[in-house]
Amino acid sequence: MTGRVIFLLEEPSMKAFLVEFLPRLIPGWCHEEHFLLVPHEGKSDLEKSIARKLSAWREPGARFVIVRDNDGANCAALKARLLGLCQGASRHVLVRLVCQELEAWYLAQPDALAGTYPSRAKAIKRMARRHNDPDACAKPSRELARVIPEFQKQDAARRLARLLAVDDTRSASFRVFVSGVQQLAASAGGMAP
C-alpha cells in the first residue's frame, strides 16, 4: 500500500465501529498500520478541522475518507459542501454520508441486531418491519433505545461491527460506504497487504 487511509469521523462511536469492522472488510488491514481513525466531537468540530488536517498532514501517499451522519440534510448539497472544504489540499478524499446515522446500519440488519440483543429479538424484528428502508428512519438511535433499553452507542458499535454482513444489508448508505472503501483499498493495492 502506498500510504495509510485516514478516516476523519464525526464521532467516537464510528471509531469504535470501524476499528472492528475495517479489518473484516479489508482482510489484512491493521489499525494504525494501514488505516487511522480520527474521531471528532460532532459535525461542527469535524467540519472545522477538515481543511486544516488535509493541509497539515505530512504522511506521503495518505488518502482520506470523511465520514459524517447525514441527519436529514440534502445528501447532494452536504456532500458538495464537504468536498468544498477539501479544495486546495491536493489530497485524494472520499466523502461518505451515513443515512441518517450509524444506527441505521444496525437497523438494516435485524438478524445481527437480534444476535447482539437476543432477549429483544422479537421486538427488534417488529421494529425492522416498520423500517423497511432504514436509511429513511429519522432517528434510528432513538428507535433502538426505545426497543432495546440497554442499548449504548459505544458498546453497540463494537459488538455489531463484528456481526454486520458486508454485502447483505438493506442500507444503501452502508453499501456505498463499503464499496467506496473497497475501491480505495484496491486502487492502492491494499486488499491484501
Topology at a glance:
Layout: E1 5-9, H1 12-25, E2 35-39, H2 43-56, E3 63-69, H3 75-86, E4 93-98, H4 102-107, H5 110-116, H6 121-130, H7 140-147, H8 153-161, H9 172-187
Parallel strand pairs: 1-2, 1-3, 3-4
What's the CATH topology name of the largest domain?
A: Rossmann fold
Report strand %: 5-15%
CATH class of the largest domain: Alpha Beta
Q: Architecture of the largest domain, CATH level 2?
A: 3-Layer(aba) Sandwich
Average pLDDT reading:
94
Q: Tell me roughly what share of residues is in helical segments.
A: 40-55%
Largest sheet: 4 strands, parallel
Pfam families: DUF4276
Protein name: Cytoplasmic protein
Describe, in short, the structure shown.
With 193 residues, this protein is α/β, with parallel strands linked by helices. The protein has nine helices and four strands, in the order E-H-E-H-E-H-E-H-H-H-H-H-H.
